[in-house]
Amino acid sequence: MAREHGEHLRADAQHNRDRILEVARDAFAASGEVSLNSIAKKAGVSPGTLYRHFPSREALVLAVYRHDVQQLVDAAPALLAEHSPLRAPRLWFDRLAYYGRIKHGLADVLHAATSDGLVGETYGVIGAIPLLLRACEEAGDIRPGHDPDDVLLILGFLWRIAPSPDWEVRAARMLDIVMDGLRAGAR
Predict the structure, then answer these.
(1) What is the pTM of this model?
(2) Residue 84 half-sphere exposure, CB side, CA atoms within 13 Å?
(3) Does the domain formed by 57-187 have CATH 1.10.357.10?
(4) Nearest Cα residue to 68 out of 101, 30, 107
């Protein structure tokens, strides 16, 4: 019986951690200056619980960042399974745009963390791009030969869009240009 109780606590602790990450992602997207206490309150946990999982602001920011990178990587095959080869990368790019919006508000903390190997983790998303491009090439939706590194570099504009009321509209317009460029010359 004690073992079941212990397992329940571990599951509860994981639930708390996941909830904190979810609330923190949304809060950081709204403002890079949000307090950790307000994140704890919105997540429905005590500040002590938040600090047990994330002992500093930087630890929480990096955990959100890493979580989002992993979600981006995992989304590519799922999107290809659910959507047409041409629709899947556009939906993935939209997710990348949202991720870029969050990163914009946290640029200082993330920049300071690059010495800890965070840049290498970010480029884990490069593994998703060839998968998406290959599916489009095989369907004849884009011309073959696009370099995934080049596509990621072009998508770097997402991190440069300043927060504003028309941020999503502007990002969508720019992503349309990228998709048009990928399709140019397709059979």
Answers:
(1) 0.73
(2) 6
(3) yes
(4) 101
